[in-house]
Amino acid sequence: MQLTSCKICTGVFLANADGSFVLVTNGVISSEFGRLEDASWLVTVYMLSMCALQPLCGKLSDIYGRKSVLLASYAFFGAGCVYSGVARSLLGVIIGRTISGIGGAGMMAIVSILITDLVPQREVAAWRAYVNIAATTGRSLGGPAGGYLTDTVGWRWSFAGQGPLIGIAGLLVFFGLHDTMPTAPSATSDTKKSKLSRIDFFGSFLLAVTIVTVLLVLDLGGQKVPWDSPYIAGLSILSIIFLIGFCLVEVYIASEPVFPLYLLRKNNIATSYASLGFSTISQVGIMYTVPRYFQITRNSSVAAAGAQLVPAVVGNVVGGLITGISVKRTGRYKLTVVLAGLISSVASTLLILRWNGHTGFLESLYIFPGGFGQGLSQAANFVGMTAGLEKEHYAVATSGLFLSGSIGAVAGVSLVNVVLENMVKRTLGKRLTGPGSKEIIEKAIKDVGYIGSLKGDLRDIVVSCYVTGLKYSYGVTLISASLSFIVGLAVQEKKLD
């Protein structure tokens, strides 16, 4: 079993290393093309494509088997990384990230579905902890390693170099993993029925468009487009229309819905989804801004700024391990879900109060509780979701849980970015006046390197405005963590098998 965990976790390690690398270097990559204001797209387009395809992963794995879908996910992810590495424009890099996101949709979800196939419920949290170690190790190494490569040979090698590595991960799965098939009646009741005909393409399309339009509203609103813009209003109306259409298709038309809506009324499905979503908004929001904070306040290199994420990812590992041990021994998970939101809120509170632009080593550890709370949340909500749920629904429900986390990640990046950019613009506009001030403000928002070149009082003003903006963005993460805590109180404790 331990050997199996190594085989299925290699891709998890690489996917998370990639994510950490992009969180650290998105400002540098976009600045190279003179488009720092579009830095968040490098993160959000990956998440958008992943969210759009994620609902299908569970159903496809029910139909074609876990192994086949996992291998296809590796292929898309690797191809996207290589394309990003050779692209000659920011648009090209963004296209590569979109292709990688298609693969990312299955890489994490299928591994967790495999765990539910292989182990009893009380063991699930422990195995999730193993996966969490692989993910956290990837996040720990991805930022510093990618930052080092960016500072030396260039960021392109961090993307292109992942191609051969993901190929090795694919070979490990191809030759070393036995396929598992679902036991759901729908998977075996009609052997003559075409596999393709069992895919709810219409429902999948409507759900994907709903997700993308909602996330575009979050990403564009207040940042690239004013909130009162007709484009935002149009996207909002479209998202509602497509959501209603999706619900009607799933209830009245689809013979095998991509996501059966009645699951949201069962067990802890809705509360687990909401708790993890809010928790992820908080943690990803912090992770996105921390490297920027140290690059601006300390003029840190990309590698040094990336290394500042280590306390959070270590906390994530510790939280996952503690949850695995606790659930295995006691069979209880609700208290862990509640504590996850409470502990995460501590991290945001400390950042608001204590990160004032001159952060020392001990104060840099304030992000540890955020990672710790997220580790508790990921493992405990996964267990809570499966508690009392019929095995035939595990794959679809697991895809939904990862979708909630993915949406939380996109929302986290988008919300903190909107708050940060608008507050920096506002405060700089008040403090910098006179000839050339507009040009300085524009450059300060677009290029991290430009801020590092500033001297004297001008640099102090710009850094101070960024620190103020970051405090407001941590207000967003505090609210999200608090909502995760409140939702956790509604989770029901159920007996584990």
Automatic annotation (TrEMBL):
Membrane topology term: Multi-pass membrane protein
Keywords of the record: Membrane, Transmembrane, Transmembrane helix
InterPro entries in alphabetical order: MFS, MFS_dom, MFS_trans_sf
GO cellular component, one term: fungal-type vacuole membrane
Any one GO molecular-function label of the UniProt entry: basic amino acid transmembrane transporter activity
Membrane-spanning intervals of the chain: 69-87, 93-115, 155-178, 199-218, 230-253, 273-290, 302-323, 335-353, 401-420, 472-491
Protein name: Major facilitator superfamily (MFS) profile domain-containing protein
Lineage of origin: Eukaryota, Fungi, Dikarya, Ascomycota, Pezizomycotina
